[in-house]
Amino acid sequence: MTETDPSLDTLARARPGPLKAFADRLSGALEPIEVIESRPGLVMLPMRDTAEGTPFHLGEVLVSEAHIRARDVDGYGVRRGRDLEAAMAMALVDLALSLNIEPDACRDFLADEARAQ
């Protein structure tokens, strides 16, 4: 399986309400923001056969995806289900992390959400 970024893992599972509120707080410091993409989609759900250890796809999962850009840096968010606002919020926090905007607040938010999971 592919190695993932722990911050993105936490954001993908973050509670929608706190995620949206935190992203709203960050959005002013990130402007102007270019929205590259905001859409629902389907992704294949990878699994590993427990007997033989071979990878396979269990089926498709509905996701919401957001891709944004500010200052030539990209932010990305993908969330399970149809919640484009939460995907956009995830992309905003990802962008803030990449641009080092409010790094202490971002680390605190990620730590709080990781504990809640």
Describe the structure.
The protein is of the alpha+beta class and 117 residues long. The chain has a single domain (6-116), classed as Enolase-like, domain 1 (2-Layer Sandwich). 45% of the residues lie in helices and 33% in strands. The chain is built from 4 helices and 3 strands. The protein has helices at residues 6-13, 16-30, 84-99, 103-116; strands at residues 34-48, 55-70, 73-80. Strands 1-2-3 form a 3-stranded antiparallel sheet. The longest helix has 16 residues, at 84-99. The protein starts with 5 loop residues before the first helix and ends with a helix. The model has no long low-confidence stretch (mean pLDDT 94).
Write the layout of secondary structure elements.
Layout lengths: L5 H8 L2 H15 L3 E15 L6 E16 L2 E8 L3 H16 L3 H14 L1
Antiparallel strand pairs: 1-2, 2-3
Helix pairs in contact: 1-3, 2-3
Task: Supply database-style keywords.
3 strands; Enolase-like, domain 1; 117 residues; 3-stranded antiparallel sheet; alpha+beta
CATH class: Alpha Beta
Summed up, the domain count is 1
- Strand pairing plus helix content: what structural class? alpha+beta
The largest sheet has its strands arranged as 1-2-3
Number of strand elements: 3
CATH architectural arrangement: 2-Layer Sandwich
Radius of gyration: 15 Å
| Overall average residue pLDDT | 94
How does the major sheet shape up? Answer: 3 strands, antiparallel
Q: Return residue spans where pLDDT drops below 50 for at least 5 consecutive residues.
A: none
The string of secondary-structure elements, in order, is HHEEEHH
DSSP helix fraction = 40-55%
Roughly what fraction of the amino acids lie in strands?
25-35%
Distance between the termini: 22 Å
Shape: globular
In CATH, the topology is named Enolase-like, domain 1
Count of helix runs: 4
